[in-house]
Write a structure and sequence with these properties.
By secondary structure, this protein is an all-beta fold. It has two helices and 54 strands. Strands 1, 3, 4, 6, 11, 12, 13 and 15 form an eight-stranded antiparallel β-sheet that branches. A seven-stranded antiparallel β-sheet has the order 2-5-14-7-8-9-10, with no helix packed on it. Strands 31, 32, 33, 34 and 35 form a five-stranded antiparallel β-sheet that branches. A hairpin with a 4-residue loop joins strand 3 and strand 4. The longest helix is centred in the first third of the chain and has 16 residues, at about 5-20. The radius of gyration is 29 Å and the shape is globular. The protein starts with a helix and ends with a strand. Residues about 1-35 have low confidence and may be disordered.
């Protein structure tokens, strides 16, 4: 007798079998079915290559879209390999992409990653991109059957996104921080059969142990776009009436670009191809509940997962009722310049949309949360705070009961550190908008991020696309950032970034963007073809007191220091990209100074408008220079103390017997450190406070009067800037940097206690 439970089980088995049938063609193959432990879904197969002493296994979990594979073996190396291979047949051109999300350390040289292989024999030709637990990535290959393996390595163990791409006989390896922007790790011309095997490889490098790795979001495709966009997030209703509802969401990300959004009401498509991140439903029924979802799609037609559903209830009539006033307003913490407020959420007949925070009756900011950090306050001073609630219809509550808080007295320590944002991707440069927003660049991801009212927005201001380029563990990518002096009216942003030229060379360029409501678009390319390479791309970009655009480019080992070669220079342009007529080498040259190895920081001394510059030396000899127009600062012939030569300007100070690796610099204008120069250190993992003196009309720095701050507390520090309110902000550079330890990067505020 067939029971109901057996019928269900049989039906599920048939459905599972159908999902495992091979997909015709190879335009795109994705993992689509979950199978029993130790089994992978069709067309994937699993085989131990080279007869390792321990048998590896593999499985796939549909719910998490994750492969798990264990493998033993001596290595994938030499003239013969031993490993476990999860693979599928492959014909023609295409790519495989995966996120190596975990790996057990059976040996420091255990390997897990992706592979393109000619045969399943142990001595086969192959190309692979593998991750080791402590020795980083290796792009390796065997060009002849039975030949000896070769490789290209980098030290990073982060990021762990990997991609192999085949076009004809050329195979390229890429890695990425986020699966969106890719940096190439190596390439190879290798003649192999048209029909190959592509897949996931794991070896333990220890014949007596198994190493297990997990691989997320594995995809194999022939051509075209790789990923669908990420699903839209933070779906929320901004205003609701009896017949309308306005909703908004956080933009999705895509490796190529999001084309538009499809908006659904109760699982029925209402509007396709919405190009903005908001939409207004009309013609709704009063007093009715609707479920709203949004999907993103790219130009290739890939569609994201749906956003989390948003439930919206229309009013039964026009909403004229205000929310109840917030209660229990309290201060959870305070410094000499800031007060953190919390309160109990208000209630409303429809819903509360946002809270307005007032300091002594003046609006300090707004937030949808029930906490807010009020900054820019005076030490040892009492303030009255109130909070009001607003609903979707714009009705405002009465104010909460006032809370009086006295800020702390000025501390003997001038600043208190506060983490503003964390889990960043190699932040590089910081800039402040007149309205209090904090913009910063992320070098490897190609993103500009923004902090509004102390909160990091999840949606980037912009994610650079082609021709933007970065190479993992290099010094290129999205680097400098500056805002126009008239940003409040023209919203111009200036950036410096690496890119690939039409002939596939690495170069740098300066670009002007235009920003609107935390979204930026390309406005104008100001300068291109600045020399670029793996290292020494310079990249600091600032606007001087003369309202000219200054920026730096490194020499990256080139011995040419002539004026026709643009490496190892600082530059000066008008804000429209034209060359100022008073530039030191004439109206046809953008060069401002020369003889630099890798200039990383620019800052002007208040009161004198003298330009200071920080620079990486070779084998220490890092420098702080006083930049005068047209001067030569020695490199590549001279550096450090060996610069007392005719026509060469020596540094104000240089690292002697140690390495700072100085990066961003800023002058302090407020408090007990006013007039001092702060220098962010990468290798030194500190901030150096330097006292500036003067002798014979020139600035000086006393090497015996250096103060070393936050030594080894935050790791590598990339940039430091003073904010208009006297705060100092700096960013770390530990995750994805050349010599970083992989710890999450942060934006940190030094709140003044004076």
């Amino acid at each position: 007798m067939i029971t109901r439970s057996k019928i269900i089980a049989l039906s599920l088995s048939i459905c599972l079998l159908l999902t495992l049938l091979p997909i015709s063609g190879f335009a795109q193959t994705e993992v689509e079915a979950v199978t029993a432990a130790g089994v992978v879904p069709n067309p994937w197969k699993q085989q131990n290559i080279g007869s390792p002493a321990l048998t590896g296994t593999a499985s796939y979990d549909l719910g998490t879209d994750q492969f798990s594979a264990s493998g033993a073996g001596t290595d994938i190396w030499g003239k013969s390999d031993q490993f476990n291979y999860v693979y599928q047949p492959w014909t023609g051109d295409g790519a495989i992409i995966a996120l190596v999300s975990s790996q057990t350390n059976s040996n420091d040289f255990a390997k897990a990653g992706i592979m393109i292989r000619e045969t399943l024999k142990a001595d086969s030709k192959h190309v692979d991109l593998l991750l080791t637990p402590t020795n980083g990535f290796t792009f390796q290959y065997r060009t002849e059957t039975g030949g000896t393996s070769q490789s290209v390595k980098i030290a990073s163990t982060s990021p762990a996104w990997v991609k192999l791409e085949r076009k004809g006989s050329v195979i390229k390896g890429y890695v990425s921080n986020n699966g969106l922007n890719w940096g190439d790790l190596g390439n190879l011309t290798l003649n192999m059969s048209a029909s190959l095997y592509v897949g996931l490889a794991v070896t333990s490098h220890d014949a007596s142990k198994l190493s297990t790795a997990t691989f997320d979001k594995v995809k194999v495709n022939a051509t075209g776009d790789v990923f669908p966009p990420t699903e839209p997030t933070n779906l929320q209703a901004n205003s609701v009436t009896n017949t309308t509802a306005n909703i908004s969401w956080t933009a999705s990300l895509d490796d190529v670009g999001v084309k538009g959004y499809d908006v659904y009401k109760d699982n029925v498509l209402t509007q396709a191809n919405v190009t903005n991140t908001s939409y207004t439903f009309t013609g709704l029924t009063p007093d009715t509940t609707y479920t709203i979802t949004v999907k993103a799609k790219d130009a290739a037609g890939n569609i994201s997962n749906a956003s989390k559903p948003l439930t919206v209830k229309t009013t039964n009539q026009a909403d004229t009722e205000s929310p109840i006033a917030p209660t229990n307003l309290a201060s959870s913490s305070k410094t000499s310049s800031s007060v953190n407020l919390t309160w109990t959420a208000s209630t409303d007949n429809v819903s509360v949309y946002e809270y307005d925070i007032y300091t002594n009756g003046i609006l300090a900011g707004s937030t949808p949360a029930t906490s807010f950090n009020v900054t820019g306050l005076t030490a040892n001073t009492s303030y009255n705070f109130t909070v009001k609630a607003r609903d979707l219809a714009g009705n405002i509550s009465v104010a909460s009961k006032a809370l009086s808080v006295k800020t702390n007295p000025a501390s003997s320590d001038p600043y208190t550190p506060e983490v503003v944002a964390s889990n960043l991707e190699t932040p590089w440069a910081i800039a402040f908008a007149p309205d209090g927003r904090i913009f910063f660049t992320e070098r490897n991801s190609g993103r500009i991020r923004v902090v509004v009212n102390g909160q990091l927005k999840s949606t980037p201001v912009i994610t650079l696309g082609s021709p933007f380029y970065y190479m993992p563990k290099s010094e290129g990518g999205l680097l400098g950032l500056a805002l126009d002096p008239d940003f409040a009216t023209n919203h111009y942003m200036y950036i410096y970034h690496s890119y690939k030229t039409s002939d596939n060379k690495v170069a740098n360029r300066v670009v002007r963007l235009i920003e609107n409501n935390n979204t930026a678009t390309l406005d104008k390319v100001l300068m291109t073809d600045l020399p670029g390479a793996v290292y020494h791309n310079g990249g600091r970009l600032k606007i001087g007191p003369d309202k000219k655009l200054y920026f730096s480019d490194g020499n990256y080992g080139n011995k040419d220091d002539t004026l026709t070669f643009l490496g190892g220079k600082t530059f000066r342009l008008n804000l429209d990209g034209t060359i100022p007529s008073d530039n030191p080498f004439g109206a046809s040259s953008p060069i401002y100074s020369r003889g630099h190895r890798n200039p990383q920081g620019l800052a002007w001394q208040p009161g004198t408008n003298r330009l200071f510059e920080s620079e990486h030396g070779e084998a220490s000899h890092d420098e702080i220079n006083f930049i005068e127009p047209g001067n030569n600062y020695g490199w590549p012939k001279y550096e450090g103390d060996d610069q007392n030569h005719a026509g060469i300007t020596p540094p104000l100070i240089y690292a002697n017997g140690t390495t700072w690796a100085p990066s961003g610099i800023t002058f302090v204008t407020k408090g007990p450190w006013a007039g001092n120069l702060l220098v962010a250190n990468l290798k030194g993992k500190q901030i150096i406070r330097m006292v500036i003196g003067q002798q014979n009309g020139k600035p000086t720095i006393d090497s015996n009067n250096l103060n070393y701050l936050y030594v080894n507390k935050y790791g590598r520090i990339r940039d430091i800037v003073e904010a208009p309110d006297g705060s100092l902000y700096f960013v770390t550079s530990n995750n994805g940097d050349k010599n970083g330890d992989g710890t999450p990067d942060k934006l940190i505020r030094l709140a003044p206690n004076f």
